[in-house]
Amino acid sequence: MARIPHPRDESRVSHAPERRHEPLRLLEHITRFRDQTQAYLNGDLSEEAFRPLRLLHGLYRLRETTMLRVAVPQGRLSSEPLRRLARIAREYALGEVHLTTRQTIQFTGPAIGAVPQILAELAEVGLSSFLTSGNGIRGIVVDPLAGLAADELEDPRPWHAILDQWRLTHPLMGQLPRKFKIGIHGARTDRVTLAAQDLGLELVRDARGELGFRVLVGGGLGRGPRLAQELTPFVHWPHLLTWIEAILRVYARDGRQPDPYKSRLKNLVQRLGLVEFRAQVESEWAHLRDGPATLTKAQVERAARPFVEAPTDDTVFAATTVPAPAPNEPPEYLLWRHQNVQPHKRAGHAIVTLSTKRLGTAPGNLSPEQLERIADWAATESRDAVRLTPNQNLVLTQVREDRLFALWEDVRAFGLDGPNRGLLTDLVACPGARECDLAHGDSLGLAAAIQARFADADDVRDIGPLDLRISGCVNACAHHNLAAIGIRGLRKQGESRYQILIGGRSGREARLAEPLGPSFAADEVPEAVAGLIALYRRHRQTGETFDAAVQRLGAEPFRTIVTRAADAAPQETPHD
């Protein structure tokens, strides 16, 4: 049976063998699913019986269509998988892919009968949809700048590889009370927001210099959002899997409730309290300590081989700044370079953000033509790699600084040059009611309206850094409750409405946003957002961001603005 390798790292890697899903037997899963799908289409398998089988392979039924979710290991794609994704989008789906906030890719509209063939074609390039849905560890998000950023203390990619291999073969996968999400990073900047995960892992060193993990548990952004709490400040690296195993055992034993919405790990931690939950985990761990799942140095070294950079004469590991541009370069290029180009820890190179946020296109959506051109850039400009970010953008990971201008010209031609990384128009939105059965609001339509309201790029830059996120429902797929301005869809008297939240923050100092009260019709939301921004601009101090101003002023002045806007809005009689 063919074994499907993970894509290799983009850096100058050693010639170590690529890591493989050795125990998974991925192709056998696909063959079995092909038979199950045919039985369903023939009427020999009921919808009820087929549902858990399709969800196991990431296949959802949506409003009058389907959606297939594909995992992207470590959020990293090389040119060959990018071209394969483009072909699948063109031949099997509705002509686009959607980038999610968890480093996965979604196809909308594939015929159910075609999905096994799609899975086989994805497997040929190291991609899979296996366990991207259902009640298990759905995926592990990793710092999109892992191995690249100047503020990194320890590269999390080998540990992500170990965890990903482990989760795919774990006997509890698919059998947990509810879905379980993990994030991992090893930098000073938390680019995956560990506090929003069921399980957050931060690489740290103790006072003796030993490597280990700070462990957070109980985060989640859906119904009843909560931030994760520190379970322990340090778990020595050999015990990583046994500690997680202990957490999963407690969760599997005590987490299930009659109401599935109350069966997340965050609900169990709240019911037991952190102290009791910790005691139960430690009790379980006492039986697992130094057992078969204890990691060895050889295992870690093997996992790290694909990420070891071969020594070269020009390798210089030092935090750098992007060199000053040469005179007479176009102002549009200078703006893009200032906003979308970041320093790389390797001298002479830069990290480039490709923005999917452009007026007239849905945030996170890419056409086959764009995917194919991104594959070209990955191959020629970025050591054959591009990475997905939690903000529905992509980054080219190692661009030579003397190639930035030529790259910008090409990026501009394909509409991925928006100089808005971290600004208001770099907004995040889920597919919403256009596709999702659970959504109450049209997230993508509202995103387009807000982008149109703030189409003046100079105005957006004057506003400064501002994180705006739109979710179509309480499930928070766009992480609206971590946004400086969050918007969520709801149903009120049979009508789609939108509630505005304020004061959230992602990252190391994560904070949940606070609802401001009234709800709005879709066409009222852009002006309500404009009112919040106008208040900020009137009261901001020199250099003060929107987030900082909200913390200084408090939510009440902003609540007043929103309440006045709601009172001034025309009141319509609900439909019968």
Quick structural summary:
With 576 residues, this protein is α+β, with helices and mostly antiparallel strands. 34% of the residues lie in helices and 18% in strands. The radius of gyration is 23 Å and the shape is globular.
How would you describe what is shown here?
- The structure is a single chain.
- The protein is α+β, with helices and mostly antiparallel strands and 576 residues long.
- It has three domains: 26-301, Sulfite Reductase Hemoprotein, domain 1 (2-Layer Sandwich), CATH 3.30.413.10; 331-413, Alpha-Beta Plaits; 428-568, Sulfite Reductase Hemoprotein, domain 1, CATH 3.30.413.10.
- Helices cover 34% and strands 18% of the residues.
- The protein has 17 helices and 20 strands.
- A five-stranded antiparallel β-sheet has the order 1-2-5-4-13. The protein has a five-stranded antiparallel β-sheet with strand order 3-14-15-12-11. A five-stranded mixed β-sheet has the order 6-7-8-9-10.
- A hairpin with a 5-residue loop joins β8 and β9 (211-217).
- The longest helix has 16 residues, at 26-41.
- The model is unreliable at 1-23, 311-319 and 572-576 (pLDDT under 50).
* Envelope shape: globular
Q: Name the structural class.
A: alpha+beta
CATH class of the largest domain: Alpha Beta
Roughly what fraction of the amino acids lie in strands? 15-25%
Which residues form runs of ≥5 with pLDDT under 50?
1-23, 311-319, 572-576
Q: What value does the Rg take, in angstroms?
A: 23 Å
Helical content band: 25-40%
Q: How many domains is the backbone divided into? A: 3
Task: Return the CATH architecture of the largest domain.
Answer: 2-Layer Sandwich
Mean pLDDT: 91
Q: What would you call the quaternary organization? A: single chain
Strand order of the largest sheet: 1-2-5-4-13
Head-to-tail CA distance between termini: 59 Å
Region (Disordered): 1-21
GO molecular function: 4 iron, 4 sulfur cluster binding; heme binding; metal ion binding; oxidoreductase activity
InterPro entries: NIR_SIR_4Fe-4S (IPR051329), NiRdtase/SiRdtase_haem-b_fer (IPR005117), Nit/Sulf_reduc_fer-like_dom_sf (IPR036136), NO2/SO3_Rdtase_4Fe4S_dom (IPR006067), NO2/SO3_Rdtase_4Fe4S_sf (IPR045854)
Organism: Allochromatium vinosum
